[in-house]
Amino acid sequence: MSRVFDLVVIGGGIHGCTAALFAARGGMSVALIERGALCREASGVNAGTLTMQMTRLALIPYALKAHTMWADAPRWLGHDVGVVVCDGLSLAFTEREEELLSVRARKRREAGAPIDLISGAAARRVEPGLGDNVRLAGHCKVDGYANAYLTGLAYRAALVSAGVTLLEHTEAMGIDQSGGYTIVTQGQPVRCKRLLIAGGVWIEPMLAWLGVHLPIKVLVNQLAVTERQSPVMRTVVGIASGLLSLKQYPHGTTVIGGGWQGVGDRENGGVALLPDRLIGNIRLACHAIPALKETRLARAWAGLEAETADALPAVGPIPGHPDAYVCGSVHSGYTSGIYIAKLLADRILGREPAMPLFPIDRLLPQPARAA
C-alpha cells in the first residue's frame, strides 16, 4: 500500500476503534488493522458491564465520563449499541463481605462514584428479584451495560463514515522503523507517520516488535448466558468479592460473569472452562437471584482480559519511539475505556487531554526508561 497514513492503529477493539474514530474526525488520515472483525476478540466476548462498583479507584473519574458517553452513544457514535442505564447493586452475604463492601464503597464514593450503602431490605426494594440472604449492598444509580455483539457493527459503520481505511481480517506481523513506521502484514505493508498499538492482551508481543518489553498478565474470565425467560431482574448485580456479575438483557437472556478463571492464553485464546468454577459461578448467581433456577444455561465461554503489573492502564507515548503510542489493559474496559481512548486521540492530535493519561514508563525496566 503506497499511501502514507497520518495514523495507523493496530487492534480493532473498543480502544483502537475509539481512538481511530476521534483521530479521523480530527482531520487525520487513519487506517485500522485488525486480524479478525472489529470488536470480536476480547471486546466481543466480555459482559459489556458499565459499573463503578468494581472499577479501580484511579479510574472512577474516567469511568463517569465514559458512562455519559455510552449513554449518549447514538449521538457521537451515530448508532445504537444496546446500552441500558440502570441501577447497580454490589451485594454482601457474609460478615467478611460486609467489611469488604463497606471499605470499597467508601473509597469509591470519595473518588466521586455515587455509591451508597443500603440494607438488604432496601436492596430488595431496588431489586425485587434478590434472595433473602443479602446483609448489605452498595447501591449506585450510574451503572448499566452495553451489548458487546452490537458494538463492532456500530463502530464499523462510524469508522467508514469518518473515512477510516479498515483492514479487517489482516494480521499485523511486525513493524519496520526505517523512515517512519511500516506495518508488515500477510498482504501489502502499511506505512504511517504515527502508530498506535491497541492490541489488548497482544500488546506485549506487539511492543516487542519495537524492542519494548512490557509484561501483560492475561486473565481468562469465564462467562455464561442463560436461555430467555420472563424478567427476573432489572439491575446490574455483583458481589463484593468480585466473583459475580449479573445482568438480564431486554430479550430475556441473563449473562453471568465474574472473576472465575478458565484455561487459556494469548496465543490460543480461551481454551477450556473449569466445570467446578462454572458451577460455582452459576450457584452464586442463583443465590443472588433465585428465579434464575427456573431457566437453563445456553452457552458458556472464556474471554481474555489484559492486566498490567499495577492493574492500571497502559495508555500514552511509547518511550524511545517518537509518534508511537499504546492504548490498552484498561481494567473493566467497557466501563472507562472509550473515554480514555478519546483522551489519547486528543494527545495524538496535538491537543492537551482533559485528564492525565497512563504512560508506560512506570512499568518498564530501568534500562528501557533510560533509553
Structure, explained:
- With 371 residues, this protein is α+β, with helices and mostly antiparallel strands.
- It folds into 2 domains: 4-43 and 150-214 and 310-370, 3-Layer(bba) Sandwich (FAD/NAD(P)-binding domain), CATH 3.50.50.60; 86-142 and 217-307, D-Amino Acid Oxidase, Chain A, domain 2 (2-Layer Sandwich), CATH 3.30.9.
- It contains 10 helices and 19 strands.
- It has helices at residues 14-25, 60-71, 73-76, 95-110, 120-126, 148-161, 203-208, 275-288, 333-348, 366-370, and strands at residues 4-10, 30-33, 49-50, 84-92, 115-119, 136-145, 165-167, 172-176, 181-185, 190-197, 217-226, 236-239, 245-248, 254-257, 263-265, 269-272, 297-307, 314-317, 324-328.
- Strands 3, 4, 5, 6, 11, 12, 13, 14 and 17 form a 9-stranded mixed sheet that branches. Strands 1, 2, 7, 8, 9, 10, 18 and 19 form an 8-stranded mixed sheet that branches. Strands 15-16 form a two-stranded antiparallel ribbon.
- β9 and β10 (190-197) form a beta hairpin.
- α2 (60-71) crosses α9.
- The protein is globular and about 65 Å long.
- It starts with a strand and ends with a helix.
- The mean pLDDT is 93.
Topology (SSEs and partners):
Elements: E1 4-10, H1 14-25, E2 30-33, E3 49-50, H2 60-71, H3 73-76, E4 84-92, H4 95-110, E5 115-119, H5 120-126, E6 136-145, H6 148-161, E7 165-167, E8 172-176, E9 181-185, E10 190-197, H7 203-208, E11 217-226, E12 236-239, E13 245-248, E14 254-257, E15 263-265, E16 269-272, H8 275-288, E17 297-307, E18 314-317, E19 324-328, H9 333-348, H10 366-370
Parallel strand pairs: 1-2, 1-10, 2-7, 4-12, 10-19
Antiparallel strand pairs: 3-6, 4-6, 5-6, 8-9, 9-10, 11-14, 11-17, 12-13, 13-14, 15-16, 18-19
